[in-house]
Amino acid sequence: MLVQAVLRVADSELRQTQLTADKDLSSSSDHHRTLHGNENEEALAAKTECVDWRSVWEILLAQFLLGSAMLVYRADFAVTVSQRYGTSNTVNGYISALASIVGTLTGFAVGHIADIYAGNTRRLFLHTAIAESVSLLAVASAPTLVLFSTGSAALAFATSVSRVASIQTILARSSQHHTGTLIGTVATVMSVARMLAPTASGISQEVFSYYGPAILSTALSIAGTLVLLIMPSKTDTKKHAA
Question: Hey, which of 69, 112, 126, 182 would disulfide with 217, CB 3.0 to 4.6 Å?
Fold first, then answer.
């Protein structure tokens, strides 16, 4: 009898301990779910917050104009060079290869070039836009094939740096939650430029003969540079999540 009584008391205490532990576990789980839910709500609010387009619109416009200038220039490159200088397809290939080599080598050095500007990507973008405009002006007015090739190589250098600088400038002005939206917008802008460039190049050739694409490219590049020079800009203020 005494043994049975002791066993009943021990069993009762064990059940009470288990009930207390279950209550504590349930309370801790509810508290964790509440905190996790609050964090999800804050993250969702940050992600769905509207992008401040006023801080990046002039960069997008400049990128559209500068990108369109390059696309128009390259649309009928072989035909234009052959008509201006009487070159063969082999020579045209050499000129394109030279520009590609310069662009590839520049890609390896973009990081070092950006370090010189100490993170001021908008200033870097402005300087590359000016370099692109000068290069296109030299290409459009080059009297000899050598000068044309030199201008084409300089143009490849400027555009390689400009592509990186423009995207970095846009991303530096917005929250990291909007990175995907901004990159998608940049891709859409350039897709529109690719769609319009062949038609614009053809029309320019009809109006200005084989000098048309170079003239139109120069005008578009200068317009993009003026946008960066004239339009107001904001200091790069990238928001980091806490």
Answer: 69
The DSSP output letter for 233 is -
pLDDT, tens digit, for every residue of 15-40? Answer: 555 545 455 545 544 444 444 444 44
DSSP state of 74: H
Instruction: Extract the tokens encoding 135.
Output: 């290069």
Quote the CATH superfamily of domain 52-229.
MFS general substrate transporter like domains (1.20.1250.20)
Residue 120: which of 241, 234, 242 has the closest Cα? 234
3-state secondary structure of 175: coil
Q: Quick check: 43 and 187 in contact, CB under 8 A?
A: no
Q: Can you read off the two tokens belonging to residue 18?
A: 């288990």
The owner of tokens 């990291």 is 176
Task: Tell me how far apart the alpha carbons of residues 142 and 214 are, in angstroms, rounded to a whole number.
Answer: 10
pTM of this prediction?
A: 0.72
| In contact, 173 and 60? CB cutoff 8 Å | no
C-alpha to C-alpha distance for 225 and 223, rounded to whole angstroms: 5
> If you write DSSP's letter for every residue of 35-61 in order, what string do you get?
HHHHHHHHHHHHHHSPP-GGGTHHHHH
Average pLDDT, rounded, for the chain: 77
With CA atoms as reference, report the closest residue to 130 among 230, 233, 221: 221
